[in-house]
Amino acid sequence: MDLEDADSELLKTWESFVARFARATDIFLMKYIRARAKLDDPAFEGSFIDHLNRAEKLDLIEDAHLWLEIRKIRNQATHEYTPQELSPYLTKIKELTPTVLAIEKVI
C-alpha cells in the first residue's frame, strides 16, 4: 500500500477507518469483556491479559494472544507515522479487521 501520493480524501478515509477500529476494539475489550468476566464471576479481578484469558475460556474470543495484538495495534493509533511506517500499520489493521468484525456474532 503506497500512501506517499495519497490525496486528502483517501487519508481521511483511512483516518476514519482507524478510529472506528480503535473504538470497536475499546468497547469490546474494555467494556464487554470485563462485564462478561464479572457476570461469570463477580469476584473476578485481574489484569487485561487475565480478562482476555477468561474471555477465551468463556468462548467469547478464540485466541487471547491475537486480541492482545489487536489491543497493541489499537494503542499505536495515537502515534505519528512517516509514510513508510504508516503503510505496514494500516495493512495490519486491515488484516485484523475480520477478527474485530466477528465480535458481532459474540454480542
Sequence of secondary-structure elements: HHHH
Residues in helix, %: 55-70%
What global shape is seen? elongated
Number of domains: 1
- Work out the number of β strands: 0
Strand content: under 5%
CATH class: Mainly Alpha
Note the total helix count.
4
Low-confidence region ranges: none
What radius of gyration results from the CA coordinates? Answer: 16 Å
| Content-based structural category | mainly alpha
Q: Could you say what the CATH architecture is? A: Up-down Bundle
**Named CATH topology:** Four Helix Bundle (Hemerythrin (Met), subunit A)
- State the oligomer: single chain
Largest sheet: none
Gap between N and C termini: 33 Å
Average pLDDT number? 90
